[in-house]
Specification:
The protein is 76% helix and 2% strand. It is mostly helical and 178 residues long. The chain has one domain. The chain has a two-stranded antiparallel ribbon with strand order 1-2. A hairpin with a 2-residue loop joins strand 1 and strand 2. The longest helix has 30 residues. The radius of gyration is 18 Å and the shape is globular.
Amino acid sequence: MAYTWFILLLAVSGTVFFLLLLHGTSLGRALHDSIPDRPRRRLFVASVSFFLTFGGVRAVVYAILHQIPPFHFIQMGGRHIHHLVFGIIILLLVGYAWLCEIGTGSTGASILVSRLISILYGVGAALTLDEFALWLNLRDVYWAREGRSSIDAIILFGALLAVGAWGAPLWNRVVRRH
């Protein structure tokens, strides 16, 4: 159970670090000034956290399978808890927050909450889609050939996030020309 807390602490620390980087440094101001459209800022932050989480999760699973301490699978009552469970819980909480319109104002506190929710959305989506092959096969095929569908899902959804964040000005110009 101590390893569970270590992994949870690692995930929370990464989220807090990214949030502080965005809110407490000139990077956050540059993000706000460079991407004035709030939905695109959210998509950008979600996109970055999505890809960072995917890379981190793959590294942790690799470490677990190669018995690199302190990592190991999370088990409760002898049952392996897949990381998509945590992803689904995070996505449900983010969805609820957005339904309640939390983080939609323009005050400093609201911007901070908006960034946190965007980070959590990227984290939850990555945790969930990283095990997409488990949804399809109803068995653990993470490193097997069938596990490739998880990588495909990550690439497709990551591309959707990236296009929403970075491609919007391009599409707006194309539409205006015609």
